[in-house]
């Protein structure tokens, strides 16, 4: 895949990277204040992380179409009590972006969860807590199922389980989550269409899914654009969703048939102004998939850590302090 050339427009902090150009400069990556950035080589990919703090390990996983930078307000506040590790998932941010396999298995949540286990092994942690938002929450869900002895506590933000959402698809779901059905299309259709203007697509997603009046840090958004605008990143994101509509469902159904559930304590947070709140009895749904569930709605849209960081910090500090 060709990499991209940087073009800085007149608006301060606004970065546009297009798929049509040839240069890529990671030196412009946004750093979370007080965090150390590293590239960690594991068995399958090289994972980009930022980490800081001392205490029990807490792994934070981002969602689509973002990077670990989405935790830029929340993560520093947690470092007094935890060693906070913010990781870019496979295919996102500055983590490696392999081409998708024919069955999309290398972007399954199982593969992405295994990346995180290998990462924590490299950091010297046998057990750890996890909080995930959006796609990161789906990876965290699979991580807790596949590696139950490793995860002490889990928080998922603004999702219902993938299997439940697909099995309860209706017109409202297909309209609100149209991207689930767009991104899974084959033969490069979504890659080509998004690649025509990836910045517009990303910013439209932030606006569409957040509550009215929500504001995002422009430096963070510029970093999302920097990373997402790469052709291999657009392809990787599509592969993530293609896996979710195929092999991930196979794994989820197999677990359901076996009666397998999340066994660690689970905190569920969701935006009261978003689709998840409008569509599901969130705690009731999660109690079908986990044995110990608590949680609440937060007054915001989809992007809890950026729309209501103080609420998220308070919830995570209280919940993970019990580990």
What does it look like?
The chain is 40% helix and 17% strand. It contains 15 helices and 10 strands. The strands form 2 sheets. An 8-stranded mixed beta sheet has the order 3-4-6-5-7-8-9-10, with helices on both faces. Strands 1-2 form a two-stranded antiparallel sheet. Helix 7 crosses helix 10 (231-244) and helix 8 (198-209) crosses helix 9. The radius of gyration is 18 Å and the shape is globular. The termini are far apart. Residues 1-24 have low confidence and may be disordered.
Provide a compact summary of the structure.
With 323 residues, the chain is α/β, with parallel strands linked by helices. The chain is built from 15 helices and ten strands.
Q: What keywords describe this structure?
A:
323 residues, alpha/beta, 15 helices, 40% helix, globular, disordered N terminus
């Amino acid at each position: 895949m060709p990499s991209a050339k940087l073009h800085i427009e007149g608006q301060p902090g606004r970065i546009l990277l297009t798929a049509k150009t040839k240069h890529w400069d990671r030196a412009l990556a946004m750093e979370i204040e007080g965090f150390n950035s590293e590239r960690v080589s594991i068995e399958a990919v090289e994972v980009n992380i930022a980490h800081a703090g001392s205490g029990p390990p807490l792994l934070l996983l981002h969602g689509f179409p973002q990077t670990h930078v989405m935790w830029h307000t929340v993560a520093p506040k947690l470092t007094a009590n935890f060693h906070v590790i913010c990781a870019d998932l496979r295919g996102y941010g500055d983590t490696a972006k392999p081409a998708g396999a024919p069955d999309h298995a290398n972007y399954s949540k199982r593969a992405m969860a295994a990346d995180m286990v290998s990462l924590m092994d490299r950091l010297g942690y046998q057990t750890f807590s996890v909080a995930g938002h959006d796609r990161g929450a789906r990876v965290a869900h699979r991580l807790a199922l596949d590696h139950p002895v490793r995860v002490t506590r889990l928080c998922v933000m603004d999702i219902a389980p993938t299997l439940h959402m697909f099995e309860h698809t209706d017109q409202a779901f297909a309209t609100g989550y149209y991207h689930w059905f767009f991104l899974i299309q084959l033969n490069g259709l979504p890659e080509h269409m998004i690649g025509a203007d990836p910045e517009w697509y990303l910013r439209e997603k932030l606006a569409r899914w957040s509550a009215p009046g929500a504001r995002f840090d422009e430096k963070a958004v510029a970093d999302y654009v920097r990373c997402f605008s790469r052709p291999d990143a657009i392809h990787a994101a599509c592969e993530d969703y293609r896996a979710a509509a195929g092999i991930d469902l196979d794994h989820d159904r197999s677990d359901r048939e076996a009666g397998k559930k999340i066994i660690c304590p689970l905190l569920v947070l969701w935006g009261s102004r978003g689709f998840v709140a409008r569509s599901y009895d969130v705690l009731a749904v999660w109690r079908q998939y986990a044995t110990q569930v608590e949680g609440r709605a937060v007054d915001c849209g989809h992007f809890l850590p950026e729309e209501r960081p103080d609420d998220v910090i308070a919830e995570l500090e209280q919940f993970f302090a019990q580990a």
